[in-house]
What does this fold into?
Amino acid sequence: MTEHERRIRAEQRERFDFAVIAGWIPPGERVLDLGCGDGRLLRYLNETRDVAGYGVEIDHESILGCIRNGVDVVQMDIECGLSGFEDNSFDHVVISQALQTMHATERILSEMLRVAGEAVVSFPNFAYRTNRAAIAEGHMPVSEDLPYDWFDTPNVRFFTIFDFEDLCGRLGIEIRERLAFDEAGREVSDDPNLNGSLAFYRLGRRS
Amino acid sequence: MSTENSVGVVTPQRVRFDEPLRLKSGAELPAFELVFETYGMLNAEHSNAVLVCHALSGSHHVAGLHADDPESIGWWDNLVGPGKPLDTRKFFVVGVNNLGGCHGSTGPLSINPETGKRYGADFPMVTVEDWVAAQARLADHLGVDTWAAVIGGSLGGMQALAWSLRFPARIRHAMVIASAAKLTAQNIAFNEVARQAIISDPDFHGGHYAEHGVVPSRGLRLARMVGHITYLSDSQMAEKFGRQLRHGEHKFSYDVDFEIESYLRHQGNKFASFFDANTYLMMTKALDYFDPAYDYDGNLPAALARARASFFVASFSTDWRFAPPRSREIVFALLHNRLHVVYAEIDCDAGHDSFLLDDQHYHALLRAYLENIAV
It folds into this structure.
């Protein structure tokens, strides 16, 4: 793949991720995006769903990106929780492929369902077929959804669809919907923990 | 000074308002004058005006220089000019010396028409809200119905916030930098030390020092010295001065031994040579009194419910006088009210004074935000 093709591919991929998330966000909602990067998901949600969104981000350059994208953003460290954000002050809180970069997994999930009625989470599934193959050959996986070498990855938590669903059970989190996709972006229904490279969840509090 | 992208030589202007101004304290000023400067051109739609509010020691002279003094560079010259973050090719920028100031606007140094003498201590106490009310008169005079933005650091940021509450429809963007919605007890405490330094100076004469032909410069010096310590960070002071000795050895005297002593004395002397003690006292009280939540049982979100502006809020990691948590309070109160807000917590070593520096990332944020403001 040329650099250009790689970029186009990444953009298509990103649009695809965004579209999956947007599918779960009714128009006009208030949305909080944790680890929002340069705010492009919020911008997309604003343009396509008329969403009133705020981002949370720790990285300085990303804050600059949010301003350039015209996205509201609060610079703070999510690892320290979401204190300051009021209970149920958002309709949806999203964490798009960022949960695996944070240490305080349980606290973040609990906090998400404190500030919003519903959470949308996406993450790379470590048990995906090609990842397993890499491990079987004795190497840490590098794939479409886990694109980093082990020595410079921002990821600090490596988990699978099974693991995540176990944790949700323990935290009293209700899984309302799950979608899994392979590396080509095809939805998979058969054994998603093996065939899904990227997982999306719609979560709520168990009543 | 680099003349590159400078607004060049500027001339202060003066305007008189003859309609009485009722102050928050209940006192009334029958008339007053404001000194101001402008940079750039007001566009045909009058939609590109930006008000720059000064802090404790600032003035109307924000950018450029005065013809009679090549050293007189404006206090926020690194921000304002053609091609600079607050770009005078796009914006019409206004700097104003606040009411009660000592740079030409009506204040303690002015002649009290009732007595024919300087006001001195008889000048009524003015607050942040009073400044905003006076600035609104200036806006009317300039034909500015709505500011594209009001921007300020520290006490200046309080004015930007106060604008969004007092005149919600007349400000589109509030840029509140290194500021707070209210001072902490510690912050008030520092102000009180500064005030007592001035008030206890034998030359203060209850604020009527002008009648005695003296200035409480020892008190002013001390006030500025203690202030200056709090505007810098521990790490920056250590880096800049450390334990460097003026004479290369311990002198076992109370003269300057350490370079930091020399620096503080210099800053104190410089300040005492031009700043009015009564103005300083009043400005610090304005800082202390500012608390928009005061009338709302301390509920800041309720106090900000009136605001309609979009906000840019920024704090600096090493600023312990107006620390990041003070800015976060504002941010979360804005979120409660569903207002647009960008909040940046900037890594900068220079403490509270960071807001005056041209830190690359800080200025990139300001530039990006200001570029997005439609005019």
Q: What stands out?
A: Chain A has a mean pLDDT of 94.
